[in-house]
From TrEMBL:
Entry GO CC: membrane
Record-stated family: Belongs to the RLP family.
Protein name per the record: Leucine-rich repeat-containing N-terminal plant-type domain-containing protein
Native organism: Citrus clementina
InterPro entries associated with the record: Leu-rich_rpt, Leu-rich_rpt_typical-subtyp, LRR_dom_sf, RLP_Defense
Length: 357
């Protein structure tokens, strides 16, 4: 009898320990600790499963958080404890009021595929530890107060498809290794203090669809290689110090819808190959040193809605062929050396609502 009592006590002890271990093997304690810092609306209500709290998705066992979306809640406070959610695949803390530095401990979230910390007030530098997030596909730190250079440790993020660090205070140059991110579709670093030349090897990114580097201090030519990617749709390089001409290879990108290269120091003529860019809707090359005639091949870009060539050195007449652009809404050509009459065909464009000569 004494032995049976001892065995029962032993089993109860094992059971209690097992239950304790189970209680620790889920994310609820961590979430409660996070809530003490952030006070998330609807979190911690008695009798509710933490997997049903706002912005949370759990795994199939309802034990670990795999998705945390606390965007647009105007939250503030310390977010370091979020790094304890080891099963996280998706973390979105965008559009809040977080400040201070980005926790280096976020580099421990080895399962993370999506990280969005944009539209906050994070300062300091981009933590080098984030280079450990080998599964990351989406990475957005835009619209913060981050300074310093883009750390070389991020070159390990070989699965990146979307890389956005725009509207910060970043300096230094665009790292050469960005061109080695072969899965990259989107790269934005606009509105920073980035210097140097655009790396020529960006053209080796065969999947690149959007490249936006406007409002920096970039110098040198527009790399011809950029137009080698037949998938490029949006190219925005306005307000830099770029020199040289517009590469003839631009005609290779038939899917380009948006070319914005104004406010630079570009020279030469517009390639006639621009007529091959059949998907073009916006073309802005104002405030450069371009010359020659306005090429009539623009008329082959049937989807064109805006053509801005103001403040250059264009000569000759306005091509009457531009009147074939039935979708044209804005034609801006002031401060050039054009002569002759305005073609009647252009005045007949039904959708034209801005004509600035």
């Amino acid at each position: 009898m004494a032995f049976l009592c001892f065995l029962s006590i032993l089993l109860l002890g094992v059971l209690s320990k097992s239950q304790l271990v189970f209680a620790q093997l889920n994310d609820e304690p961590t979430l409660l600790a996070i809530n003490k810092e952030l006070v998330v609306p609807g979190w911690g209500v008695n009798g509710t499963n933490f997997c049903s709290w706002k912005g949370i998705d759990c795994d199939l066992n309802q034990a670990f958080v795999v998705k945390l979306d606390l965007s647009r809640l105007q939250l503030r406070g310390n977010i370091t404890l979020v790094s304890e959610l080891k099963a996280l695949k998706r973390l979105d803390l965008s559009n809040n009021a977080f400040s201070g530095t980005i926790p280096s401990a976020f580099g421990n979230l080895s399962e993370l595929e999506f990280l969005d910390l944009s539209l906050n007030k994070f300062g300091g530098v981009i933590p080098r530890e984030l280079g450990s997030l080998k599964n990351l596909r989406f990475f957005n730190l835009s619209n913060n107060l981050l300074g310093g250079e883009i750390p070389d440790e991020l070159k390990s993020l070989e699965k990146l498809e979307d890389f956005q660090v725009s509207s910060n205070k970043l300096n230094g140059s665009i790292p050469f290794w960005v061109g080695n991110l072969t899965n990259l579709r989107v790269f934005t670093a606009y509105e920073n203090q980035v210097v140097g030349e655009i790396p020529d090897n960006l053209g080796s990114i065969s999947e690149l669809e959007l490249l936006n580097l406007h409002s920096n201090q970039l110098e040198g030519p527009i790399p011809k290689s950029i137009f080698a990617s037949g998938k490029l749709e949006v190219l925005v390089l306005t307000q830099n110090r770029l020199t040289g001409d517009i590469p003839e290879l631009v005609g290779h990108c038939k899917g380009l819808s948006n070319i914005r290269i104004g406010n630079n120091d570009l020279v030469g003529v517009i390639p006639r190959a621009i007529g091959n860019v059949s998907g073009l809707t916006y073309f802005e090359a104002d405030n450069n040193n371009l010359s020659g005639e306005i090429v009539p091949e623009f008329s082959q870009c049937s989807n064109l809605t805006l053509l801005n060539l103001a403040s250059n050195g264009f000569t000759g007449v306005i091509p009457p062929e531009l009147g074939q652009l039935i979708n044209l809404q804005e034609l801006i050509l002031y401060e050039n050396s054009l002569f002759g009459e305005i073609p009647k065909s252009i005045l007949a464009c039904k959708n034209l609502n801005k004509l600035d000569l």
